[in-house]
Amino acid sequence: MSEFETLLVDERPDRLAVTLNRPQARNAINLAMVRELHEVCAELERRPRPLLLTGAGDVFAAGADIAELLERGRDEALQGINSRLFDRIARLPLPTVAAVAGYALGGGAELAYACDIRLATPEAVFGNPEPALGIMAAAGACWRLAELVGRSVAKQVLLGGRRLTAAEAERFGLVAEVVPGPELAARAHALLDRMAKSSPAALRLTKLVLDAPGAHPVADDLAQAVLLESADKRERMTAFLERRRSS
Ligand code: COA
Fold this sequence. Notes:
4-stranded mixed β-sheet; 16% strand
């Protein structure tokens, strides 16, 4: 991948680890970062791999860049600058993990909500202070957060200005696990290691079916039909059975 201005990318054969890297602005998401994250998405759509997203320093991301937001108007809102990016991230073929150290506020929180799984340090804080700036959280929080933690807690965050600590986020199911800062990256990579052992096609179809709205037994059956016919499934199951026979 090309050199980035706002991201650090650790590209490996079985994953991409991307660090939001504008520490001087607490990793605030500006247009350059949006553009660069679209490039990351394009790469992952071309060559599907799990994605690990994290923030440089002791912050995940302090939101959309407020200096840019100040100058944005109706036309920019209708372009869905952040919402379309976060939707694209949510629809990436293979799982996405956000490793959140410190603040994930505003658009930073929405970016974390768009990932499939979140890990956090004890210092992590999730919040959507947009109304205090005269705007709303319009890049997915109004529905994604409600899906993740329920409408009651989502309303406390979005309307009541409640900030969720890491422990609260874990209790509400927003965060899978709270991990001390120095262990966060290793723990997140261990999660991706587990994913890397699974069949990419099985993960991809599971994610598609899981994220499809409503009940969809036909989609489940169709996805399974594809997987049951794969050579990869035959190899994996045969290896399992042969291991048992030889032990
Ligand atoms: N957009 C643009 N710049 C931001 C920013 C944002 N969302 N968040 C922080 N910055 C900048 C600050 O303006 C400051 O710039 P400066 O050094 O040129 O003055 C720099 O990042 C450091 O911020 P500071 O507030 O001094 O850091 P902190 O460690 O004391 O506090 C936060 C961190 C995240 C609590 C605080 O920066 C904050 O509240 N940010 C805004 C959060 C927000 O409202 N997000 C919603 C946006 S929709």
